[in-house]
Amino acid sequence: MRCLPVPPDGPIPPPGTPLALRVPLAVRDGSAPTTHSVGVLRGPSGAAPPSLVSPGVARDPYPVFRVLRESFPLVRDELLGAWLVSRYADVCGALGQDGLVAVPPGRTLAHMEGDTHRAHRALVEPALRGRAVAALAAGASRTAYVLARRIAARPETDLVAEFCQWLPTAAVTAALGLPYEDTARVQQWCRGGLTHLGGHHHELDACLRPHLARRRARPGGDLLSVLCTAEVDGRPLSDEAVSGLVGSLLGGGGEATALAFASFLANLLDDPRQLALVRERHELIPAAWAESLRRDPPAPVVLRRAVRPVTVAGATLPAGTVVACLVGAAGRDPDRFAHPDRYDILRADPGRLAFGAGRHSCPGAELAARTAEYGLRALLDALPGLRWAPGFRPAPRGLLTRGPRILLVRPR
Ligand code: HEM
């Protein structure tokens, strides 16, 4: 079975003509092409669909997301080597579907399937929910106040380097029960590519080895001890398996939350009226955080590989296909959200698609929300005059991971 190039390769209808486009998607050896409806082409100019790897897209992907959502809801991006899905309902459906796993191959939760995934996930989830998270968040709150007070003494500072990158990593390091001193090392790995999908595992393995040996001999109450003493199918997890899980927790917890928090601060600092409202009413912080994740998710493009034929946006894609779920495009779908480009902390239902959907949806959502809430509270309390440094404008960038890399502010 092989994929064929996708629309538009037939005659283009006049602009404005709604058309149910039917294109060949897959050919089985010796058989006729199977055709599937892949959506509606509206007002096309005859131009080829845009590619996510075109120049400038990583700086601002939102204009391209809009074109894809409006005119090419399911389309093959030849340069990227993936099918792009961009409408809210289709992205939810794709992420919620079994049979799509993370790329490139790896050993984290996001790469596992079926019962193996269920068993490993059940080990991690309880430590990232409810009372367990409340206990962790208290530690995150203390760290946030220490960091915020340090910043308060400076005339000008970069909130990303001095705050956003430290706090989430410290929260997950604490959840695992690793020493606080390891936070700096983890942070460096995050900058070098440690994400939800692991990466840098040799260094991580070496760093973890003595901790694993100690936890196996004398388990404590932390998440690392839970993983070291857990059994799946009657057998303890290998050091490699524990390391893979720890990698996805540190990477996900560190990088994704740091970028999301940086975008959250940028959205608030860009709108002094809404910032003042949150200052006055701290109970609005969770909604303001959720709205920022909708508008500016830290993982706007989630790549998945089909391990069997899957249905995406109404079409069947064969095993081996790579699907790019455009969470960033879906979060600004006007069919789902009114005035989708606007950051509005009073929006009734910003959803939670930034954390994915279905069995692989992010287990760290609650920890991330608590970390962000305590982080913002600490900054608002310690920095009453917080505002942009003169002339500074945030410049988010990135596609697989996205957010501003510098936030220059005046704390007083
Ligand atoms: C704002 C912060 C975060 C965002 C936006 C985020 C986003 C995501 C997304 C989009 C996925 C893929 C979901 C899917 O395939 O449907 C994911 C998976 C995952 N996240 Fe996060 N994440 C965040 C924070 C965290 C934290 C704090 C942790 C851990 C402490 C974490 C651990 C994980 C893990 C382990 C997975 C893989 C789950 C699985 O495959 O079953 N994430 N996250």
Automatic annotation (TrEMBL):
PROSITE patterns: CYTOCHROME_P450 (PS00086)
Keyword check for Heme: yes
Keywords per UniProt: Heme, Iron, Metal-binding, Monooxygenase, Oxidoreductase
Signal sequence interval, chain numbering: none
Database matches in SUPFAM superfamilies: Cytochrome P450 (SSF48264)
Record flagged with keyword Zinc: no
Domain of life: Bacteria
PANTHER family tied to this protein: P450, PUTATIVE (EUROFUNG)-RELATED, PULCHERRIMINIC ACID SYNTHASE
Family, per entry: Belongs to the cytochrome P450 family.
Protein name, entry field: Cytochrome P450
Organism: Streptomyces atriruber
